Amino acid sequence: MKPWKVRFRPEADLSGGVLKAALGTVTYWGKGMAELPAELYDEVVTLSSEGDMLAGLGEFTNAIGIYNEAWKLIPEPKASWEASTWLLVAIGDACFLSGKFKSGRDATGFALQCPGGFGNPFIHLRLGQCELELGNVDAAAEHLTRAYALEGKGIFDRDDAKYFDFLKSKIQPPASGNW
């Protein structure tokens, strides 16, 4: 089985069966994760890497186009492939960062259905942020709460403080009183 790849955090370290990304630790091995045939996987990775480069330069619209080319290569049922998870996260992240919140919500929402998606704090963070930007406060509160519960306050550090402020207005403070 090939390892999960995280395309949204370049400082990721793959070691020991666990992905240690800047935003936390996500297990990437698991039963039921389907892996693409090697040649197809390589094509998807090549396109994803090109999209990552463009996203790193702030060219999010172009990155989304390249990610979508890779997405078209994923066979049906798309939700059963581990590559779908990281590819949808990359699409959702680029959509969020470019202000395409509906598309970001759609991509991250679908990523939750893919291997390792549900319970991934970053996916819940981006989904919650997109929902908030779209005015869906209940859904935003749900997913931002999940991100906070899974990863703590640190997951909010790289983004606008409004998201954590919103969350604090929706949930009770921790028992310690320290957010």
SSE blueprint:
Elements: E1 13-15, E2 18-21, E3 24-27, H1 38-56, H2 60-73, H3 82-97, H4 101-111, H5 121-133, H6 137-151, H7 162-170
Antiparallel strand pairs: 1-2, 2-3
Describe the structure.
The protein has 179 residues and is mostly helical. The protein has one domain: Tetratricopeptide repeat domain (Serine Threonine Protein Phosphatase 5, Tetratricopeptide repeat, Alpha Horseshoe), CATH 1.25.40. It contains seven helices and three strands. It has a three-stranded antiparallel beta sheet, with no helix packed on it. Strand 2 and strand 3 form a beta hairpin. Helix 2 packs antiparallel against helix 3 and helix 3 runs parallel beside helix 5.
What's the number of helices?
7
Name given to the CATH homologous superfamily: Tetratricopeptide repeat domain
Report the biggest beta sheet as strand number plus sense, adding barrel if it closes: 3 strands, antiparallel
Overall number of strands: 3
N-end to C-end Cα span: 39 Å
Gyration radius, in Å: 16 Å
**Order of strands, widest sheet:** 1-2-3
What is the total domain count? 1
N-to-C series of helices and strands:
EEEHHHHHHH
CATH topology: Serine Threonine Protein Phosphatase 5, Tetratricopeptide repeat
CATH architecture: Alpha Horseshoe
What proportion strand? 5-15%
Question: What descriptive keywords fit this protein?
Answer:
mainly alpha, 179 residues, three-stranded antiparallel sheet
Short description:
With 179 residues, this protein is mainly alpha-helical.
